[in-house]
Each structure stands twice: as C-alpha cells, then as structure tokens.
C-alpha cells in the first residue's frame, strides 16, 4: 500500500515553499506587464496590440530555443504527435493574447482589473468540468465574494466602454480556459512546461502575423512615430521579455498549485493595481460603490489565500473518496 500511496501523492506532498514562491513570481510578472503594456498602449498610444503580442511570442521562442541549444532546459523535439497533444491550447493562447492586449488600452486601469475577476468563477467551473476537481464550500464562498465585489465596482463605472468590456470578458474566458488546459497539458511525461510554452508560441506566431497584416495592425506599427524614442523601444522590448516571463510564471504557478489558485493570485494583483491607480494612475473616477466593491474583492481574495495556505483549498479528485475507503479497509 505504501508504494501505491507514494505513486499517487506527488502533487499533494509538494512542499509549500515552491507553491508560495511560484505564486509570488507569477503575481509580480503579471503586475509589471500590465503597467508596461498600459504605458505602451495608453501613454504612448501605440496602435498595434497584435504586433506587441507577436513580439512577446517571438521573445518566448528565441529564449526557449537558445536555452535548449545550450542544454539549460529540455523539451521534446518536434514530431507529428505534438499538435494533437497541444490542441486546443494554441487557439486559446492566441485568443488570450489578442483579447488581453486589446482590452488594456480601452478601459481605465482600475476598471480593467475589476472586470478581470470574472476569470475566477470561469476557472472554477472549467476545473470541475475538464479536470474533475471539487472544492469545499469555504473556497466557493471566497470566490463568490470576489465576484460580488466586482459586480458592485463595475456597476458604478462612470466611463462605460462597450468595446472595452467585450474584449476584457473575452479575455476572461480565454484566460480561464488557458489555465485549466495548461494544467492538463504540462505533464512531464508529455511535453513538460517548456515544451508547452515553446510549441504554443511556434504554432501561433505565423497565424498572428497574418492577422496583424490583414487588419492593418502591422502597418500601423511600422508607421508609428516613436520608434526613434529610446524610452519607447526599451519599454517595448521590456514588454516582450515580460510576456515570456508571464507565460513561464503562469505555467510554473499552475504546476505547483491549481489553475484556480493561479487565477486568484492574478485577481489579488489586479486589485492592488486598482488601489495604485487611485493614487497615481490619473484615469480613476472615484465613487463610493466602486471603492466598496474593490474592498470586497480584496477581502475575498485574502480569504482564499488564507484558506489555501491552511490547505483547505486542495481540490478533490473524483477518485479521492474511493481511495480513502480502500486505504481504511486495508
């Protein structure tokens, strides 16, 4: 029985330090890239979010390929089975990229971060449907508190933008699907986390370039006036590098934690950005309801974090009860 237990418990027996560090790494990368992208798309009025996404994919491909050549990391060489193993991640990946970049510049930073909370219940739902996980009531209540706060805050938005709302809600759907399917695909016996990142970017960079050309996005990027501005170029390259770090940290956090935990970490980060936006962003329109909603979101996120650290959020797999019964009989 001990051998069976050892084989079935790697995820449950994972030490807490990698879980916490991977979550902090993901939260930091996600925080930084939102600020940099906001500067590029809003402060500099860069007109080509798809072109920026291509830069981030290209950075990911180059960094991982050079690392593989230098034997720093390892992932499988290409074969015919890889597209089948990855599907539908590449489609979700490009949808997540484009919708995320398209929504950032269309909404105020605080409002953008509030609407991103809807990723959480979508992730919870997809983990139940696709991965067969079950969460205790305390976790579900924490998630509902975050959503309640988002509804309250969004209901008082004084700068409503239908196009921005549409893009950010699409981004929520793609982000939830990306997190859950990534958790499913990063099995080390298959592609592993580096293989998932590399082949995702490889498969989608060419179609994204075609989309960029056909929509005029690429032409707008080449005609942009600030390519001679050193500070703009630095922030553009920084965004490309942070795009790679964000993808890597997302996979790492999902590997050590659940996809839901990764999503909640992102939500807590977004609320922190909202608080900062009130002080330094310049585009926040204060209202009592919005402020109350943000605080409810933060309370729900902190409650979830507390439950996770206590270990109450460990998702139950469908076979857990049967395994417990068999162990008690033996």
TrEMBL record:
Q: Which Pfam families match?
A: TPT
Topological relation to the membrane, as annotated: Multi-pass membrane protein
TM ranges: 20-37, 49-67, 109-130, 137-156, 162-182, 194-215, 227-247, 259-278, 284-306
Record key words, sorted: Membrane, Sugar transport, Transmembrane, Transmembrane helix, Transport
Q: What is its main location?
A: membrane
Tell me where in this chain the Sugar phosphate transporter domain is found.
Answer: 25-305
Q: Which InterPro entries match?
A: Sugar_P_trans_dom, TPT_transporter
Coiled-coil residue spans: none
What subcellular locations does the record give? Answer: Membrane
The answer on whether this UniProt entry bears the keyword Membrane reads yes
> Is-annotated flag, keyword Transmembrane?
yes
Q: Tell me the protein's name.
A: Nucleotide sugar transporter SLC35D2 isoform X2
Organism listed in the record = Apteryx mantelli (North Island brown kiwi)
Kindly list the organism's lineage: Eukaryota, Metazoa, Chordata, Craniata, Vertebrata
